[in-house]
Amino acid sequence: MILRGFKIKKFGLRTLLTTGLSMLLATGICSGAGFQQKCLAAEEAAPVINAGASTGEKDLEINGSALQGKADLAFIHDGLLYILDGRTGQVIKVSGSGQAIKPVWSFDGQWLAYIRLTATEADSGALWLVKRDGTQNHQVEELPGPVEPDDYAWSPHANKLALNCQGIWLADPQGQPEQLVQKESAYGFAWSPDGRCLAYSLTLPQAKNESPESRSDALYILDLSNGKTAQHLVAPESGIKVVSWWPDGQGILYWTIPLHSASLTADGADLFSYKLFDPEAKLIATGLAYREWLSLSPEERLIYISGSGRTAWTEKCLEFCNTRTGSLKKINPLPASVVLDPSFSSDGSKMAFVTAKDWGAKVWGFKNIEDLDSWISTRTLWTADSDGTGAKPLTKAGQGIFRPEWSNDGKSLMYVSEDSVWLIDDQGHKRQRVVGPLSLPGSSNDFHFGFYGHASYGDLMDWFKY
Fold first, then answer.
1. How far apart are CA 249 and CA 426, in angstroms?
2. Which among 449, 148, 458 has a CA at the least distance from the CA of 313?
3. Please, are residues 330 and 306 in contact by the beta-carbon 8 Å criterion?
4. Pick from 314, 316, 344, 318: which is nearest to 329 by CA?
5. pLDDT tens readout for residues 261-297
6. What are the distances in angstroms from CA 377 to CA 280, 381, 399, 449?
7. Alpha-carbon distance 288 to 374, whole Å?
8. Residue 139 forms beta bridges with which residues?
9. Phi, psi (5° rounding) for residue 114?
10. What span, in angstroms and rounded, lies between the C-alpha atoms of 148 and 126?
11. pTM as predicted
12. Chain segment 66-105, per-residue pLDDT in tens
């Protein structure tokens, strides 16, 4: 078997665009009292839960005490959704059937949204909501079709869920969804920091003798407090993929999609920063359009994985930017390496990222699983000061690191390695395994290959940090 860019699991590649741009129940509670007895060292075996042997599930290893006082964890194991309560150590089995994917916590940690796929190879499905204790698990009814895993997000200040499903909708956990934008060409929305507005893009109507690829997208802002919508800018002959608001709510980050081409975007997209009501946006950097390859600090500093080419294993570096002024400098602490998966601490004083060996631009795939695993094993965890200085590796974190995130107090890092979730202190002295394995039914190393080396562990887990 040769692993190349077209040889992927659909679970590993999340949709980059919608509207023709696709590329990119039984609830059981397992007692967690024993998990609070002690924190396990890295080399010690975690307690094992045989969660519902009658369902054919594999054993889970769970160390509930590791997260005590830090976070709750929603995770997918063998296609089923679980919640690990960091306060009590209890493990709540949310779904007893179907195939769950992409859990997302509400702003207050009281609700989870997730998708239940309808077929093994499907990349969309019914949207479900469930309370943190496993109760009120229900499908969001009255939507016109299935929802894709990147197409929903909670308000930062209320238990309201915005979603894209043949237009933009607003769902209330206790009521029926309301359609806010009726255009099917709407996509790429983001909540403002105060939860008052939604930014989104629309593909403008096709002019006479205009090819579909030459159509332009416009950026809109919907004020939910009064229902008014305003158009802000147009990207000529390009799509717009809204990424995020500035932390102070005075601007918006977005990618442009040249000629609405998924193929062109797979090799890089321009990241723009737009200050509201300015005549034009500012080009910040160019890189792949993955949200997890971008992190914002409260001071509006931005770290972003820049570099053209669709392969994750070459020509990728960490670009340090200011959302208002643009690129400041590039950071790459090791020669012949790439930088991936950046993360600012919540106060913006520190950053974390992953380095891996640069395999060169001539490598487009792997002849076998062993070669892929060899590259994954070079993925190591690093931390640095907020400006990129003082970079150092956390060698005790192990190898094969994905998706590092800081705890709210900035004293710990949570990350994925060996298909398990781990916790390590910020000095890199001690790591603990929290839970594992994360998995979808039938998932294999194809998932680790993802799309040219980009694997989406965000489909399998989400934190609610205290």
1. 30
2. 449
3. yes
4. 318
5. 999 999 999 999 999 999 999 999 999 999 999 999 9
6. 43, 11, 5, 13
7. 23
8. 128
9. -155, 170
10. 9
11. 0.87
12. 999 899 999 999 999 999 999 999 999 998 777 999 999 9
| Token output for 173 | 């956990």
Roughly how many angstroms between the first and final C-alpha of the chain, as a whole number? 44
* pLDDT tens-digit readout, 171-180: 999 889 999 9
Residue 73 CA: distances (Å) to CA of 49, 51, 386, 458: 16, 17, 26, 12
Collect all residues with Cβ–Cβ distance below 8 Å to 304 and sequence separation of at least 6. Answer: 271, 284, 285, 287, 293, 294, 295, 318, 319, 321, 342
Residues 6+ apart with CB under 8 A from 30: 49, 51, 90, 91, 92, 93
Cis before 437? omega within 30: yes
Q: Taking the C-alpha atoms of 455, 458, 460 and 462 in order, what is their torsion angle to the nearest 10 degrees? A: 160
- Closest Cα partner for 180 from 244, 131, 229? 229
